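Bit of a strange request maybe. I'm writing a small parser for structure token strings and I need a real example to test against, not something I typed by hand. Could someone generate the tokens for this chain?
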Amino acid sequence: MVLLGAIAVGTYPLAFYTSMHLAGVAAGTVVSIGSAPLASALIERVVDGRRLTRRWMTGAALGLSGTVLLCTAEAAGAHSGPGTHSAGETVLGVGLGLVAGLTYALYSWAAHRLISRGVTSGAAMGTVFGLGGLLLMPVLLATGAPLLYSWSNAAVGIYMALVPMFVGYVLFGWGLAHVPASTATTLSLLEPAVAAVLAVLVVGERLPLPGWAGIALVVGCLAVLTTPTRTTHRPRADPGDGPADPGGPHLAGCPEGLAGKAGPRMRERGR
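Reply from user aminoacidic:
Good idea to test on real output. This should exercise your parser:
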């Protein structure tokens, strides 16, 4: 299980970031993150025999609909602006995004399996990501020279290692200890929505109205999955509790002697 998670961790960033490079930031993020809940649910259904709840299906439908709207809006904006990608690059990027979604679901499921077997979330995530990081070391040695070209590049690399990876996945592992992997990956549908908002605020991209509608649907997905369910408990009648009147409500107006004689008979008939 640890090796499966580590291989998935080593494969995921290569597929994810290459998908963004080929298909665009928004499309690569949407496909990679958007396909993960379906892959995770399929893994849990086939391997664990877990049934999907109506609540999860409702939340997943909202989230996936939102990601499709967001992806469509971003694709329309990308074709009308600079940095347009060719059809072949886009198809390859989408394919790698699907690989990223599958590996994301795999290491989430593997970590959840380890945690459910008694391994602490910190140990599970540390082991899986530690081995996955070792698998990525040759890639770093072969392609990591630009990180040392300037302090700004190094700062970005350090930030990505500490904030999105270390802090983010420590919190993700804590979440996996409390919810199924399919729910955790569905909640991460917020990531493409945040990426789109940051693209507007930081990069200066324009997001059409359907994109904002997609973000609203993703937020609705999060609301469905995170709102606590209310359970109503009906008071159970105590068999030992009888009516205050010895003869019951039908004998409330009877004389005391008659009620005392008729009450047991009527209770006996009731039994």
